[in-house]
Amino acid sequence: MAIVVKLEALMLQHGISLDKIAAATGITNVNVSRLKTGKVVAYRGTTIDALIKALRALGVEGCDVADVLGFVPDDEIASIGEGVYISVPKNLHHMSNPYSDAARAKLRGEGGPKTQ
Questions:
Q1: Which end of the chain has a smaller Cβ tally under 10 Å, C or N?
Q2: Residue 32 burial class via C-beta count within 10 angstroms: exposed 0-12, middle 13-18, buried 19 and up
Q3: Which InterPro entries does this entry report, sorted A to Z (predicted)?
Q4: Residue boundaries of the structural domains of the chain
Q5: Is the pTM of this model over 0.70?
Q6: pLDDT given for residue 18 in this prediction
Q7: Which neighbouring-strand residues pair with 107?
Q8: Fold of the domain spanning 2-107
Q9: Which helix (H) or strand (E) holds 103?
């Protein structure tokens, strides 16, 4: 069993920066980074509550706990490092990565046409 943290994907999907989440929650940038990468020992209810409220305020309509955290059964996970897991959907070969390096660069303002 693995608990999957989906905060980074949600932030990328909605174009929300780490700074915006930190400001809206009152959680430091470092701790928001740890939360989104799953590098925390435990998630407090108050922290999850603050994240959900902040995401809703930043335009993620109807955001709920299941949008931020998920569960993956043992037979659907692949270990990529000690204590770090990713979900491996059964139809992986039919899927594309909407959060590719190019998409991340675009969200950071590093790609695409220049405006003057």
A1: C
A2: buried
A3: Cro/C1-type_HTH, Lambda_DNA-bd_dom_sf
A4: 2-107
A5: no
A6: 94
A7: none
A8: 434 Repressor (Amino-terminal Domain) (1.10.260)
A9: helix 101-107
